[in-house]
Amino acid sequence: MAPARPPAARLAALIVMMVTLGVAVPVGAATAAPPGGLRAAAAPDGDEEGGTPALRAQLDAASKGYLDAKRALDTSVQRQQQLATKLKATEAEMTVRNGKVGEIAGVAYRTGRLSTVSALLNTNTPEGFMDRAAALDVVAANEDRVLRDLHATRDEANRTRTALDGEIREQRKQVEVMAKRKEQAERALTVATSKPRTTAADTSSNRGTSTANAEPAPRNSDGSWPSESCSINDPTPASGCITPRTLHALNQAKAAGFTRYVSCHRSGGSGEHPKGRACDFAAQKGGFGGIASGGDKTYGNNLAAYFIRNSDRLAVLYVIWFRQIWLPSSGWKSYSGGNGDPSSDHTNHVHLSVY
């Protein structure tokens, strides 16, 4: 969450006090801020994300649960497709084996299935006896193998059908979990937005466009997101630490052309910033200023669209921009938990939280 700009009067009063006390004012202090008087540094102990810690905890849990269930659903659907392909091949194989058994049965019907003893007695020489015995062994072994193969194929088909039924049950379960997580997030937002606003709601569109595809963040072998700690030095001026996944999202956004001021880690407050799992992307070139408009608003719109387009690749939990929040479960929803300033209303920056 970006900080609000301090009033000019407060800065002027501070300078007057310093002069009165005989403290030297550093040369160039007035030009140390970003262009246009924008403030670039995040409040070290601020909690200006908008909403409440309880709301952010609900959104975090709901989005994580939704993404986990969606991953399990996607994995189950993939397994179902593999099993369906396997079952089709097994059934084709079983058709062939049924045909071979049918051939054996047909031969037995036409020849009357002479007994082994009868076949051996119909030989006139010892050599013929041995040859006939060997031939009978081969026939018996072949028939036995054909029957065993048929039974094995039928068993495999039954196991595959059972596994398919299990995947269908798993998918129904995960769909129910996703629906509950969606309801959890929307219920939390409903409670938060039921409170009176101190400023009028913005009705202008925050929809942008993006065609850039991000490189996917690393996943576990089962498709889940690995657990990560705040272990990477934050490369933004905010200092502190961020997770490897947050750094990946930050670098991917820069590679896509979104290179304006960014602040990630925050040592105080609630939400994902102190955990290194969130960044604030300023809409204006120099930092966090007033309400974005014109080209700055378009920049924010397109940046939000980029994160949404790549939400699955970047493990996006949610995006907040211009008094609205995008959730993987629900899309865009009203987010009016701010305090009426550009920072907590998210009208001067795009907030990104990742898994």
TrEMBL record:
A Pfam family annotated for this UniProt entry: VldE
InterPro entries, sorted: ARB_07466-like_C
Compositional bias of kind Polar residues: 191-213, 221-231
Cited Gene3D superfamilies: 6.10.250.3150
Species this protein is from: Micromonospora lupini str. Lupac 08
Domain of life: Bacteria
Name of the protein in question: ARB-07466-like C-terminal domain-containing protein
Residue span(s) of domain ARB-07466-like C-terminal: 239-346
Annotated region described as Disordered, given as residue ranges: 179-231
